[in-house]
Amino acid sequence: MFTKHQISMRNFVSLLMILSIAACSKTSKSLYTEPHRPQFHFTPAQNWMNDPNGLVYYEGEYHLFYQYHPFSNVWGPMHWGHAVSKDLVHWQHLPIALEPDKLGTIFSGSAAIDWKNTSGFGKNGVPPMVAMFTYHDAEGEKKGRDDFQTQGIAYSLDKGRTWTKYSGNPVLPNAGVRDFRDPKILWDAERAQWLLVLAAQQQLKLYTSPDLKNWTWIQDFGAEWGNHRGVWECPDFFPMKVAGSEQTKWVLLENFNPGMPNGGSGCQYFIGDFDGKQFVLDADFRFSVANGRGMYLDHGRDNYAGVTWSDVPAQDGRRLLIGWMSNWDYATKVPTEAWRSANTLPRQLTLRNTAFGLRLFTHPIVELEKLREGGQVLRPEKLRPGPVVNNFAPSQMELILEFELPERGEADFGLELLNAQGERYRLGYSSRINSFYSDRRQAGQTQFTDNFAKDRHYAPRPDNVRKMQWHVFLDHASMEIFADDGRTVMTEIFFPSTPFSAIQWFVNEGEVQLKNGQIYALKSIWRK
Ligand code: FRU
Predict the structure, then answer these.
(1) Residues in Cβ contact with 423 at an 8 Å cutoff, skipping those fewer than 6 apart
(2) Whose CA is nearest to atom 9 of ligand 1?
(3) Which among 47, 48, 49, 50 is the best mutation to test ligand 1's pocket, defined by most ligand atoms within 8 Å of the CB?
(4) Which CATH class is domain 9-364?
């Protein structure tokens, strides 16, 4: 059992944390200034991070828990790390929230506020913050069992600072499914019940509960729809208003690994209706996800395990998502030492009608605007190879650009980042394939694994209107583009040997007009 060894392990963890905090304050000059350290993206101060977990808003704070290995910069026995933010932009690190126990290590999961105290965990009118997560029993796995992943719950009555695990765990045992994990809970206000969606190999399982402790299976979804080239993980399920209408649809997000068109990990989604018992895929949407096709949230290589915040106040009403900005193809090998992996920028999802039917659009959250300092308006002109601006370093930058494609003939153009080493990152668009592309093949360190930069990565553009918008965020080691008002999204990381110091247009083909452009330098969220 977990007695002596565990207690001493726990003390050891606390000691290490105290030592590392002390070390951080001593070395605070270098912390968050290391090579490749993102300046306006979330990263843990030290060590390994993967999926965002337990995203919940409560009393003025957005909580971000995450898969965390406190002792190493590669994946290992998982804990839930913790940070909070008042604005989703600036983050405060907090001590580890959930540690392994005798049932296993703590894999991904979610959190919600149990406002009606259905669980009975609340006290003196304080509603409990309840987390549901996967217990991963590594011993059971080693022994070749199939039931080593089960679901447990824990609650907090002090704004997520301390947690009590439920004595009746696991609340959802495993009937023998090897991949059975990543519970996402949601209060279904219309039917006054809890909903749970979790991933089971290559499909999703839905359950309902009156109290978060007793769960009833209602549906399996997905065996015959979507991309099945990988294991399904980290789902999400929520209602959304269709923009500009009173219509509500239900959206299922489903992360999977491997099998994305550009390789490795990614996220697909499904749109349909839910009556409290059955999720039914929209007739219009079936075609898009039939025969192994997927509808992808982000076409880049580096947005995985993204899920959305629970309990965002109704007067705000946004559906807010954050992803892990990496890919299992190479996550454990990327060339950072002190910490490993960042999150994507927080994003707002909207559901819109398009010529192809309903689609999810993704937008950078407006709060990011407060990071802007200075700014320049670009003159409308015909694009020519050469500097976009002279006095901005591209390592912390936001660009809002509008182009017009030529009336006749093809176009192939974009932005390139350069440094003194002659390294180059390119973000482009080619009308011949009507796709955006990201080219990190010469963007610095790529040799740490063989599949980081084998090829360019593509994002198909569904429309082919001549006007095209690019909203681009560049941090030291990442590029995020929200094109055509969030219709096409790509997230990609890269590791230049020294920071990129110049930003230029490249034009391979065509007469492209820049109609409008704004450029902002962005402040660091970690440094004053
Ligand atoms: C996704 C994932 C989850 C799992 C977690 C373990 O990246 O594999 O399915 O819960 O990571 O860290």
Answers:
(1) 442, 443, 444, 496, 497, 500
(2) 233
(3) 50
(4) mainly beta
CATH of the structural domain 370-522, one choice from 2.60.120.560, 4.10.520.10, 3.20.20.70, 1.10.10.10 = 2.60.120.560
Give the per-residue pLDDT at 30. Answer: 78
Which residues fall within 8 angstroms of residue 15, CB to CB, at 6 or more apart? none
Residue 16 reports pLDDT greater than 90:
no
Find out whether the beta carbon of 78 lies less than 6 Å from any atom of ligand 1.
Answer: yes
Q: How far is the CA of 110 from the centre of ligand 1 (A)?
A: 13
Q: How do residues 59-116 score in pLDDT, each as one tens digit? A: 999 999 999 999 999 999 999 999 999 999 999 999 999 999 999 999 999 999 999 9
Is residue 51 annotated as part of the catalytic site, yes or no?
yes
User: Does position 528 have pLDDT exceeding 80, yes or no?
Assistant: no
Number of neighbours of residue 418 by Cβ within 10 angstroms = 20
Establish whether residue 67 lines the binding site of ligand 1, counting it when its CB lies within 6 angstroms of any ligand atom.
yes
pLDDT, mean of residues 167-186: 96
Regarding the beta carbon of 234 and ligand 1, being less than 6 Å apart is answered yes
Tokens matching residue 315 = 């007067």
User: What are the structural domain ranges in the chain?
Assistant: 9-364, 370-522
DSSP state of 301: S
Residue 238 Cα to ligand 1 middle (Å): 21
Gap between the Cα atoms of 372 and 413, Å rounded: 26
**The amino acid at 137:** D
Indicate if ligand 1 lies below 6 Å from the C-beta of 398: no
Residue 20 has pLDDT above 60, yes or no: no
Ligand 1 pocket residue status of 108, Cβ below 6 Å: yes
Cα–Cα distance measured from residue 110 to residue 361, given in angstroms and rounded to the nearest whole number: 23
